[in-house]
UniProtKB/TrEMBL annotation, chain A:
<comment type="similarity">
    <text>Belongs to the dynein light chain Tctex-type family.</text>
</comment>
<dbReference type="GO" id="GO:0005737">
    <property type="term" value="C:cytoplasm"/>
</dbReference>
<dbReference type="InterPro" id="IPR005334">
    <property type="entry name" value="Tctex-1-like"/>
</dbReference>
<dbReference type="Pfam" id="PF03645">
    <property type="entry name" value="Tctex-1"/>
</dbReference>
<dbReference type="GO" id="GO:0007018">
    <property type="term" value="P:microtubule-based movement"/>
</dbReference>
<protein>
    <recommendedName>
        <fullName>Dynein light chain Tctex-type 1</fullName>
    </recommendedName>
</protein>
<dbReference type="GO" id="GO:0045505">
    <property type="term" value="F:dynein intermediate chain binding"/>
</dbReference>
<dbReference type="InterPro" id="IPR038586">
    <property type="entry name" value="Tctex-1-like_sf"/>
</dbReference>
<dbReference type="GO" id="GO:0005868">
    <property type="term" value="C:cytoplasmic dynein complex"/>
</dbReference>
From TrEMBL, chain B:
<keyword id="KW-0493">Microtubule</keyword>
<protein>
    <recommendedName>
        <fullName>Dynein intermediate chain 3, ciliary</fullName>
    </recommendedName>
</protein>
<keyword id="KW-0853">WD repeat</keyword>
<dbReference type="GO" id="GO:0005874">
    <property type="term" value="C:microtubule"/>
</dbReference>
<keyword id="KW-0966">Cell projection</keyword>
<keyword id="KW-0243">Dynein</keyword>
<dbReference type="InterPro" id="IPR015943">
    <property type="entry name" value="WD40/YVTN_repeat-like_dom_sf"/>
</dbReference>
<dbReference type="GO" id="GO:0036158">
    <property type="term" value="P:outer dynein arm assembly"/>
</dbReference>
<dbReference type="GO" id="GO:0045504">
    <property type="term" value="F:dynein heavy chain binding"/>
</dbReference>
Length: 110, 601
């Protein structure tokens, strides 16, 4: 068992990346249904590219939910069956005046 | 998204058993509903949605940067020979050639190459790709809307703003344009302005072909039709000068300033002579001077435009435009600043005999004057806000004129190919094409060439397809016209001739009537010879009435209608008789009926 193949998923690096991505895409923007598609795909792609650049041996899954603030409620939860020592997941919740944004990233070691 | 991740794994690690454990549920988001927020939204009913089932286009325009070209020559030396062989030595080259011919593969490669060449040549020769189909058939006349498009724009490369006020085409084909530039504004005080004029090559709008450097700015410039290298230019200070394109930019000859005009020499025109060295110039100082290029120190002849024929310079009218037709070498016409048009004869012993008819002209300076190329008795003049067409026979009034336009007209010219077309330029930068056979109340085609006033125009002589217009900013635009504006129809000449004749006759009749009425009024007070006048008037009137086809047609029409009515009444009467009469009378009626039928038929 070589330690190189089993580096843990470093959480705070990832959180920085995710935060920066969301800020850059959605800073000062209002919810526009024509652009939402663009934003979600942009966020997810940017996160994955940034994470893979680190060249670590992980499988990544990124999901992004953008919800308009119009009074509805949203509840989500996850559950996983994996190698608890090497795999980690991470969620970031972000909001501005018109929308909620929830980004979840899973890193599964190869 | 193209991400690649390359990693290595030890073979022993493949297929290792995984150790998975369950991870507890983690709630990611728990956002309760918030009715306050929902109150920010209202339901929209109905929803309007515009749909259009067309492809979405977007428009872009690009103006490419002007590409500067320059012509250079290349010296090509023979090459392709191997290094040790000097291509200039014939024996070395022949030795090399003989050596290659003796090589093994030579005949084989020659044969195969020969086959290839033969095949291509045969292909070329099968079909004549330069054949003109249907050459002997005349093209169908397609009625399309006339159009004109700008071919080239020649901008003054110098920064100072000068108007392009005269253009002359190269006499031998449409290859070159000479344009004179001069700032004609009153007291514009341009000491340091550029006074050059240019000769442009029509293919090269970036750089003029030749700069002409006169002593004072040129107001007008003309190529010599006989010697295409010579140009005459009229200067702002009244001198005239001769340029030769072979001899460089400065004037070859210049007239002495004491013997030249005292005002700008507005027009210079070459004369038709055997030597091709004579020309004459006109200026607003009231003089017309004849010159010979061999001796420009003083004019050959002088004419003072005093219409009272007393030769007084103070009374003279200033000349703005000249008209000279090379087929009538002794007569010419002058358009004056005061608006009159004077027809002159060069062969007069003194000034009084030289000046002929004076036409009333325009309300302002006559900027252009030209005889019709096909009908020499009619000429057009451009001035104030109208274009007027005159006939030499009618001295008191023009025979045709255009509606006064909103903008002042600056120049006009007949089309050399089509008899019914003439061009005018206006102060709002439009070039108008008028077709008097098609529409007389407005131009057939009006093109906005530039946004500033256009000062001059010149049609390219033999073909009449290209028109060059010069504007206030010194920009010369070359416009190409569609075919239907330059190709003459079959009966067009006759129709235009007919139109001019009709209008001349009409003007004559009106004049005669007016004269007769005036005479009648004048002599009725004395009471003598009124009958003669009225009978004269009456005969004219009856002539007019007889000649009036509309009235005749009306009379005929009512005659026919009355006859039919009478026939109908007669038939009705006959029918009535038949009904009333008994059988005994039927034979009589039957006889009568065919008789009447015969008469009616």
């Amino acid at each position: 068992m070589n330690d190189i193949y089993q580096q843990p998923f470093v959480v705070h690096d990832a959180s920085n990346i995710i935060n920066e991505t969301i800020e850059s895409t959605l800073e000062h923007q209002l919810y526009q249904k024509t652009k939402v598609n663009l934003w979600t795909s942009n966020i997810v792609e940017t996160i994955i590219s940034a994470l893979t650049k680190a060249n670590k041996s992980f499988k990544y899954i990124a999901s992004c939910v953008i919800m308009e603030k119009n009074g509805a409620g949203l509840h989500t939860a996850t559950s996983c069956f994996w190698d608890n020592t090497n795999d980690k997941s991470f969620t970031i919740r972000w909001e501005n005046t018109t929308m909620y944004v929830i980004v979840t990233v899973y890193g599964l070691s190869i | 998204m193209d991400i690649q991740h390359v990693y290595t794994k030890k073979r022993s690690e493949f297929g290792r058993q995984v150790i998975f454990t369950d991870r507890a549920v983690e709630s990611i988001a728990d956002i309760p509903p918030n009715p306050d927020l929902s109150r920010e939204y209202i339901s929209r009913n109905p929803v309007e949605l515009a749909i259009q089932n067309v492809r979405e286009f977007s428009e872009h325009w690009v103006n490419t940067v002007r590409f500067e070209t320059e012509n250079r020559g290349i010296n090509h030396v023979e090459g392709g020979w191997p290094k040790d062989i000097n291509p200039l030595e014939p024996d070395q080259t022949s030795r090399f050639r003989k050596k290659t011919e003796k090589e093994d593969g030579f005949t084989r490669s020659m044969l195969s190459l020969g086959n290839l060449v033969e095949h291509t040549i045969k292909q070329n020769n099968i079909v004549d790709i330069y054949e003109n189909y249907f050459q002997n058939l005349e093209p169908d006349v397609v009625e399309e809307a006339p159009y004109a498009k700008t071919v080239n724009i020649y901008r003054d490369p110098h920064k100072t703003r000068r108007a392009a006020n005269h253009i002359s085409w190269y006499a031998d084909g449409a290859r070159k344009l000479a344009v004179s530039y001069c700032n004609l504004e009153f007291q514009s005080g341009t000491n340091d302005s550029f006074i050059d004029s240019y000769i442009w090559d029509t293919e090269n709008p970036t750089k003029p072909d030749l700069h002409l450097k006169p002593i004072s700015p040129l107001v007008c410039i003309e190529f010599n039709p006989k010697d295409t290298h010579q140009l005459v230019g009229g200067c702002y200070n009244g001198q005239v000068c001769i340029f030769d394109t072979r001899k460089g930019s400065t004037a070859v000859e210049q007239s002495l300033i004491e013997n030249s005009h005292r005002d700008p020499a507005y027009k210079t025109v070459w004369l038709q002579s055997k030597s091709g060295t004579e020309f004459f110039s006109a200026s607003t100082d009231g003089k017309i001077l004849w010159w010979d290029t061999k001796k420009l120190s003083e004019p050959v002849e002088t004419l003072i435009l005093d219409i009272e024929k007393k030769g007084r310079l103070e009374n003279a009218l200033g000349a703005m435009s000249l008209e000279y037709e090379s087929t009538i070498p002794t007569k010419f016409m002058v358009g004056t600043e005061q608006g009159r048009i004077i027809s002159c004869n060069r062969k007069g012993k003194n000034d009084a005999e030289k000046i002929g008819n004076v036409f009333p002209g325009h309300w302002g300076p006559v900027y252009a004057l030209q005889r019709h190329p096909n009908f020499l008795k009619n000429f057009l003049s451009v001035g104030d806000w109208t274009v007027r067409i005159w006939s030499e026979e009618m001295r008191d009034d023009c025979i045709m004129w255009t509606k006064p336009s909103v903008h002042a007209l600056t120049d006009g010219q007949w089309s050399p190919t089509r008899s019914s077309i003439f061009f005018t330029t206006k102060m709002d930068g439009t070039l108008d094409v008028w077709d008097i056979l098609f529409k007389q109340n407005e131009p057939t085609l009006s093109i906005q060439v530039v946004d500033e006033p256009l000062h001059c125009l010149r049609v390219e002589e033999p073909h009449g397809r290209l028109v060059a217009c010069g504007s206030q900013n010194g920009t010369v635009t070359l416009v190409e016209l569609s075919d239907n504006l330059c190709v003459q129809g079959k009966s067009e000449k006759a129709l235009v001739n007919g139109m001019f004749d009709r209008e001349t006759r009409r003007a004559k009749i009106l004049e005669a009537r007016g004269r007769a009425r005036r005479d009648a009024r004048g002599k009725s007070a004395h009471g003598e010879k009124t009958e003669k006048a009225t009978t004269d008037g009456a005969t004219l009137e009856s002539e007019l009435k007889e000649a009036d086809p509309i009235e005749k047609a009306e009379k005929d029409f009512w005659k026919i209608v009355d006859e039919e009515k009478r026939k109908r009444d007669r038939k009705a009467a006959l029918a009535g008789e038949k009904a009333a009469a008994e059988a005994g009378e039927t034979t009589q009626a039957e006889e009568a009926a065919p008789a009447t039928a015969e008469t009616t038929e």
